[in-house]
Amino acid sequence: CCSILSVWGIIMLVILGIFLFTHSVAFAEDLAIDEKLPKIEFLTEINRKYTQAAYNCWIAACLYVVTLAVSVHQIY
């Protein structure tokens, strides 16, 4: 069961990270950004938040790889 969930987590988080890294507009509302910033600072902050969220997804996907390895090791 953990193996199946790990595979799904890896796939989902890698794809989510790709979408965030390409600044998909669908995730704009999920970023905590102060809307009162000047335009230049606002755009810089958006870029930083998208990139950080993408890295967080990829780190979580790596943790799922570890979970998958432990699960597969226990099976065999």
TrEMBL record:
It is found in: Membrane. Keywords: Membrane, Transmembrane, Transmembrane helix. GO terms for molecular function: RNA endonuclease activity. The chain crosses the membrane at residues 6-32, 53-75. It comes from the Eukaryota. Its main location: membrane. Coiled coil: none annotated. It is a multi-pass membrane protein. One of its GO terms (cellular component) is membrane. Belongs to the RNase K family. This is Putative salivary secreted ribonuclease. It comes from Ixodes ricinus.
